[in-house]
Design brief:
0% strand, mainly alpha
Length: 133
């Protein structure tokens, strides 16, 4: 992924987790210009999965010429979302850090569920909570 895009996402995550004041009003981001919340969560999950894979040394050895736009476009196409819709949605959520925090809570929940499912599949004798410990 593009380092500027990842830095921007990291900044948004850190900023939202710090919890800003005055953003706890009931606000919903809706409209044709924006991605539905549930779909936005799924897109962010996929983005973070792809980011984790592409940051692996094995990936870079094989695919050094991969541009982040090449990785983001298939994810957006999978959900029928344009780059403009995604950018607008991310920009709007950045105006309401408490909402972005809620979105990222859902993203982290889904990623943790995936990790737990993966650990159960890899754990000897199906022992829960393996996590390679």
């Amino acid at each position: 992924m593009d380092s500027r895009f990842l830095s921007f996402l990291s900044f948004l995550l850190i900023f939202s987790l710090m919890g800003s004041s005055g953003c706890s009003k009931k606000k919903h981001i809706r409209g044709k210009a924006y991605v539905d919340r549930e779909v936005f969560v799924d897109i962010l999950v996929d983005i973070h999965l792809v980011d984790g894979i592409t940051n692996d040394r094995k990936f870079y050895r094989r695919y050094t010429d991969t541009d982040s736009i090449d990785l983001l476009s298939p994810i957006l196409e999978k959900y029928g979302v344009t780059h403009t819709q995604f950018d607008s949605t991310l920009a709007e959520y950045s105006r309401y850090p408490s909402l972005l925090d809620q979105v990222y809570n859902d993203v982290l929940m889904k990623l943790n569920v995936m990790l737990d499912e993966n650990d159960r599949e890899e754990a000897p004798d199906g022992e829960p909570g393996f996590h390679g410990q």
